[in-house]
Write a structure and sequence with these properties.
The complex is a heterodimer. Chain A is an alpha+beta fold. Chain A has five domains: 11-99; 104-250, Beta-Lactamase (2-Layer Sandwich); 272-380, 2-Layer Sandwich (Beta-Lactamase), CATH 3.30.450; 386-459, Helix Hairpins; 467-614, Heat Shock Protein 90, CATH 3.30.565. Chain A has helices at 11-45, 48-102, 107-121, 149-152, 162-170, 185-188, 225-271, 290-296, 300-303, 315-318, 321-325, 327-336, 382-426, 432-459, 475-489, 512-529, 582-593, and strands at 126-132, 138-145, 156-158, 174-176, 197-205, 208-217, 275-280, 285-288, 340-348, 354-365, 371-380, 496-501, 535-542, 547-554, 596-602, 606-614. In chain A, the strands form three sheets. Chain A has a six-stranded antiparallel beta sheet with strand order 3-2-1-6-5-4, with helices on both faces. In chain A, strands 8-7-11-10-9 form a five-stranded antiparallel beta sheet. A five-stranded mixed beta sheet of chain A has the order 12-13-14-16-15, with helices on one face. The two termini of chain A are 85 Å apart. Chain B has a single domain (8-123), classed as 3-Layer(aba) Sandwich (Rossmann fold). In chain B, helix 2 runs parallel beside helix 3 (65-75). Classes of the chains: A alpha+beta, B alpha/beta. Chains A and B meet through helix 13 and helix 14 of A and helix 1 of B.
């Protein structure tokens, strides 16, 4: 850029002005002299001519006055024009500088432009821009001209020390003239000449020195106050530009960080294994993540941008039921400004299953106050709940097992003594009555012993599951064999047995011993429930979810509805003489092998036990 | 062995009925039978009477059968030990074996079963078995 200081008023111009004034004065003197001569010459001849002479003098005087005044005005106008031009030039220099330095948001480009302006204005060829470090303890050379690269690269100057450091510390410029020759000029400067004049300007803005710029010339220059003022103004503009660029860069960094953070956050929310649904103040769904879609069975595009009130329970065959369950929760959080944490709700899914959802819901606050919307974060915890229940049941059974073992031992030991001592007693001579009494004692003790054995069967229900204790046989073969053995040992009049076993069923994850326990208990229960002409059906087929399903159905008396919740409780029985351990044992084994058991029963219609056995 | 040349056998059980019954059965086999109510008493009787065979229940108050076996095998390694139990887990039985118990009887057992088990162990005495 070709900015230069405005031209100065010269001596020649001042001389010409003075010459003009002398000419006017001379003209006026000649006029007065001529008028006087006419006046006196005519006065001697005729009085009337006196008036002529006076008039001539008057006319001449007025003419001279007008002439002088016109020159004076012209001169003043010229001076004003000059001043105006001068100001205009300075203003345009300033404007050019502002436009040059404010047209970039790149700090490196700005530093180069500052150097352009400084060197152009001060007729210099050497210059640097120095900016402070973060702690403002030192200044670092950021850009330079006229230096050999190694001379200034990475150069750091302590703040407050030396002329440059002081300019930075005080904010006052320094002009140095008649600098002594630099002995290292050849290796420092590109053209090898020492600078003679140096202007060190603070770049000051916002009440703080933002940096320092230095211009040096190999010529001696005397800068006027006007030049200095202009330089100050320019440096202020350049400092403002530096602040702006730094602010811009900072805001850019913040924006980048925000953008990254937002990306990360939205990615996190999108990918998190919990459904997130957000509504705005109008009730429109403004966020609906992938898991929310999976849990509700609705695609985000079906929901986003729509008012949540448009979705109605039962609509389209109950497709919206999961989403609508959260409707009052979202509205409540928004309107009542309430936060709901660790809540649970039961929701009927479109497939008819009842699912347990846990959720946290909260209003979204506006910074200035009030709410902008509300959000709900939800998870389907049905499987978790089932697992918890199973674990509780297992725990319960484990404690029960330990207790049973203890009781069994404590009872079995004296029973052993009772029965043994009765044998000893029988060896002695006894009357008929005594023999009968001993016999009764033996029968009672035997009953007790049988009960204890049942309990120990429950305690000892096989638990180990591993490759060694798994049957390699097909589930169908195992069931067929067990059914045949059982029917053979428990012949019942008129019993009809139906086998509906899918061909080629895979082996399942249970040992032969576990199978025996499961099916002997289930078949025994079925037989006990049926009167004559009962129909016992055993069905088995492979499911598509890693399980084989086995159904043991009877058309017997069924289980009373009020008894259904207790059927797995150990020692709970609805039949006379039952130990109440059969289904407990089956359930325990099913839990151990990772299977599932379900009992469906209707009074006087029969009972169906559904087992899901994991495929081995 | 007592003065009549009978082998001494100590029965340890906290149930008096069991002690009495098993004593009767084994006296018939020609043993001099001693009795102790728990592990602590059994240690004292063993130290005093030096029975060749100790027949002890596993579940007992204070010192149980396993601990008793450990103590007796340490203090009187020549003593043969048979443990009996009404119910024990496989782990308990493994522990008993580890302590060097010579045999194991599950209650309820018959007169014949206990007599044969004890005779088998008695046959090893003095033969280094």
């Amino acid at each position: 850029m070709g900015v230069e200081l405005p031209p100065k008023t010269t001596m020649q111009e001042k001389d010409s002005k003075r010459r003009g004034s002398l000419f006017i004065l001379a003209l006026l003197a000649v006029g007065i002299l001529l008028g006087g001569m006419i006046f006196f010459a005519n006065a001697l001849r005729d009085f009337r001519y006196i008036i002529d002479g006076v008039l001539v003098i008057l006319v001449l005087f007025i003419s001279a006055f007008l002439f002088v005044d016109r020159r004076r005005y012209r001169s003043r106008n010229l001076s004003l024009i000059q001043e105006f031009t001068d100001l205009n030039i300075r203003f345009s220099v300033l404007a050019d500088t502002v436009s040059a330095v404010s047209s970039t948001l790149d700090l490196e480009v700005l530093q180069e432009k500052i150097l352009d302006v400084m060197l152009g204005l001060t007729h210099s060829s050497i210059g640097t821009v120095l900016l402070p470090d973060e702690d403002r303890q030192s200044l670092r050379v950021m850009a330079s001209r006229g230096f050999k690269p190694h001379a200034v690269e990475g150069l750091s100057i302590p703040a407050g020390k030396g002329t440059i450091g002081k300019v930075f510390a005080t904010g006052k410029l320094a002009v140095r003239n008649n600098l002594p020759p630099d002995p290292r000029a050849a290796e420092t400067y590109l053209d090898g000449h020492s600078p003679r004049t140096q202007v060190i300007m603070p770049l000051k803005a916002k009440g703080e020195v933002q940096g320092v710029t230095i211009a040096a010339s190999t010529q001696n220059y005397a800068y006027t106050q006007d030049d200095i003022d202009l330089l100050y103004s320019l440096c202020h503009e350049m400092a403002v530009a530096i602040v702006n660029v730094e602010l811009y860069q900072k805001s850019q960094r913040t924006l980048e960080w925000l953008s990254e953070t937002q990306e990360y956050t939205s990615g996190f929310i999108e990918e998190m294994l919990a459904g997130v649904a957000v509504i705005n103040a109008e009730g429109e769904v403004i966020y609906f993540n992938r898991e929310a879609a999976a849990l509700t069975g609705l695609k985000p595009e079906e929901v986003l941008g729509l008012n949540i009130d448009l979705f109605e329970r039962g609509g389209e065959g109950g497709r919206y039921d999961v989403l609508t369950a959260f409707k009052p929760i979202l509205h409540g959080c928004f309107k009542e400004d309430m936060v709901l944490t660790r809540r649970e709700t039961l929701i009927n899914k479109p497939d008819g299953r009842q699912a347990t959802f846990s959720y946290n819901a909260f209003p979204l606050h506006r910074k200035k106050g009030g709410n902008v919307g509300s959000a709900v974060v939800f998870m389907d915890v049905t499987a978790l709940k089932e697992m918890e229940a199973r674990l509780r049941q297992q725990d319960h059974l484990s404690i029960l097992g330990q207790m049973s073992a203890k009781i069994a031992h404590e009872v079995k030991n004296p029973l052993f003594a009772i029965l043994g001592l009765l044998d000893e007693l029988e060896k002695a001579e006894m009357g008929e009555e005594q023999t009968r009494l001993v016999e009764l004692i033996r029968e009672e003790a035997a009953l007790c012993s049988e009960w204890i054995s049942g309990m120990l069967t429950f305690v000892r229900a096989p638990v180990q599951v591993g490759p060694d204790c798994m049957t390699r046989q097909s589930l169908g073969d195992v069931l067929h064999q067990l059914l045949n053995d059982f029917i053979g040992q428990n012949a019942v009049n008129g019993l009809k047995v139906v086998e509906d076993l899918e061909a080629n069923l895979p082996p399942v994850r249970a040992s032969a011993d576990q199978f025996r326990h499961i099916f002997s208990n289930l078949l025994e229960n079925a037989l006990n429930a049926m009167a004559e002409n009962g129909v016992l059906t055993v069905r088995a087929h492979a499911g598509d979810n890693g399980y084989c399903e086995v159904r043991v159905e009877d058309n017997g008396s069924g289980i009373p509805e009020e008894a259904l919740p207790h059927i797995y409780d150990p020692f709970f029985t609805t039949t006379d003489g039952g130990t109440g351990l059969g289904l407990s044992i089956v359930q325990k084994i099913m839990l151990d092998i990772g299977g599932k058991i379900d009992v469906v029963s209707q009074k006087n219609m029969g009972t169906t036990v559904v087992l899901k056995l994991p495929i081995g | 062995m007592d003065v009549q040349g009978r082998k001494k056998l100590l029965i340890v059980d906290d149930n008096e009925g069991v002690r009495h019954l098993v004593s009767r059965w084994l006296e018939r086999s020609g043993f001099q039978v001693l009795e102790a109510r728990d592990g602590k008493e059994a240690v004292e009787v063993t130290a005093r009477e030096r029975p060749e065979i100790v027949l002890a229940d596993i579940r007992m108050p204070k010192i149980d059968g396993i601990e008793l076996a450990r103590t007796l095998k340490r203090e009187h390694p020549e003593t043969k030990i048979i443990l009996m139990t009404a119910y024990s887990s496989p782990l308990t039985i493994s522990r008993a074996r580890k302590e060097g118990v010579d045999d194991y009887l599950e209650k309820p057992f018959t007169q014949d079963q206990v007599q044969r088990a004890v005779a088998k162990i008695a046959g090893r005495i003095g033969t280094g078995g």
